[in-house]
Structure formats: structure tokens, C-alpha cells
Amino acid sequence: MKQLDQVVGLDRLLAIHLNDSLRELGSRVDRHAHIGYGRIALRGFTNVVNDPRLREVPMILETPKGEDETGHDWDLLNAQTIRSLIKHT
């Protein structure tokens, strides 16, 4: 967050794409994974959704589409996962 603020400026941040990554940071490969199923993992998303500086920044899911093996919609599952990470104070 410190580097993001220094390079871009948190005051200039208009939205955040939320997707996990199949590949490691710096791989130059943009392959999305479902929330918690990739390299960022739930801990990374917990930090983002609970950072008070990002409270008013819209967050947009950008994850693979379709259904899981039980027929549940991945968009709904990813949204539920993100919501479950929010700490209510």
C-alpha cells in the first residue's frame, strides 16, 4: 500500500479489480483465479477489503465465469467470499 500510494497516489485510485492470480507477481502473465484460489490468497484480499483508506473505492470482481462442480455460480461464490472477509467493527 505504501508503494501504491507513493507511485500512483491513493487519492487517484478510482476503482480496484479483484481477482486472484494463477501466476506469481512479476510473471507478466495475466491469468485470473477465483478469490482465494490463487497466489494472492485470502490473506491478501482480507488486507484490501479492510483497509480504511479503500473504504469508498469501488471494487469490481474480475474472476473466471461459470459454475463450480456443484452448479453454483462462481460470481456469487466470489462475491460471498469477499464479503466474508470484511471485518465489521
Topology (SSEs and partners):
Layout: H1 2-7, E1 16-18, E2 20-21, E3 32-33, H2 41-49, E4 59-61, H3 74-85
Parallel strand pairs: 1-4
Antiparallel strand pairs: 2-3
Can you describe what's shown?
The two termini are 22 Å apart. The chain has one domain (16-85). The model has no long low-confidence stretch (mean pLDDT 89). It is 30% helix and 11% strand. The strands form 2 sheets. A two-stranded parallel sheet has the order 1-4. By secondary structure, the protein is an alpha+beta fold.
Kindly estimate the percentage of residues that lie in beta strands according to DSSP: 5-15%
Biggest sheet strand line-up: 1-4
The oligomeric status of these chains comes to single chain
How does the overall form come out from the CA principal axes?
Answer: globular
The helicity comes to: 25-40%
Q: Can you tell me the residue ranges where pLDDT is under 50 for at least 5 consecutive residues? A: none
Number of strands: 4
Task: Tell me the radius of gyration.
Answer: 14 Å
- What distance lies between the first and last C-alpha atoms, to the nearest angstrom? 22 Å
Alpha plus pi helix count: 3
